[in-house]
Amino acid sequence: IDCIQALTSLPSLRAITRNLLASGSPGLASAFTDAARTRLRQSIAKRIANTNGLFETGIDGIHAVPSSGLDNTLARIRSLYGAGMGFASLKHLASIVNATVGLRWELDGSMATTLAVIDTDISQAIQSCKEELEGGRVNDLTTAREEVHKLRVSVQESLADVENWGGEFPFERAVNSIECWKI
Predict the structure, then answer these.
(1) What is the pLDDT of residues 99-143, one digit of tens each?
(2) Main-chain dihedrals φ then ψ at residue 74, nearest 5 degrees
(3) Which site from 10, 42, 86, 124 is most exposed, i.e. has the minimal number of CB atoms within 10 Å?
(4) Is the pTM for the entire model greater than 0.70?
(5) Can you tell me the distance from the alpha carbon of 88 to that of 29, in angstroms, rounded to the nearest whole number?
(6) C-beta of residue 106 within 8 angstroms of C-beta of residue 63
(7) In the prediction, which pLDDT does 105 show?
(8) What are the phi and psi torsion angles at 171 (to 5°)?
(9) In angstroms, how far is the first alpha carbon of the chain from the final one?
(10) Cα–Cα distance measured from residue 169 to residue 175, given in angstroms and rounded to the nearest whole number
């Protein structure tokens, strides 16, 4: 197996994995996702960088733009909620939302586009949380509620900040997802 991993391209490994999971026994996909969650708990969840440096000042010296580090952080967060670890991803998404407070961005620039994508990430993470709850994989409901509350507060603080400077609030979908969800 090590030889296959070493000599096969990443897209081919993905295809092999998908085919194996689709054609294997019913318990194989479940075992695979359990193994993925275990690995993510050990590695990615702990390695997600803090929010310092996720945004930087653009060339105009006024407006914020996403930094190169943001893409890597978002990829790790997506790995978490994609593997069914939505609650583990919420605190990181809340930190990103918090990092936007005090920033200004152009309405049609790369920052606005990136924030719209993050808005979608939040909605997807919330869906992952719902599935995590339904699947009985939440060990501590109090901590889960705290993570949702932190995200709610972060989004509300961002809304107040954006209204204060007259910008366009980027997290509308997140507000709706949070408000329609009772945990």
Answers:
(1) 999 999 999 999 999 999 999 999 999 999 999 999 999 999 999
(2) -65, -35
(3) 10
(4) yes
(5) 21
(6) yes
(7) 95
(8) -115, 40
(9) 43
(10) 10
Tokens read off for 36: 């993925």
| 156 token code pair | 């509300």
The token pair that represents 113 in the structure block: 């586009």
Instruction: Say if residue 182's pLDDT is above 60.
Output: yes
Cα–Cα distance, 101 to 155 (Å, whole number)? 10
Q: State pLDDT tens for residues 68-91.
A: 889 989 998 999 999 899 999 999
Place of tokens 């932190």: 150
Q: pLDDT tens digits, residue range 162-172?
A: 999 999 999 99
Written as one letter, the residue type at 171 is: F
Query: For residue 5, how many other CB atoms are within 10 A of its CB?
Result: 9
Extract the tokens encoding 72: 């890597």
- What length is written for the chain? 183
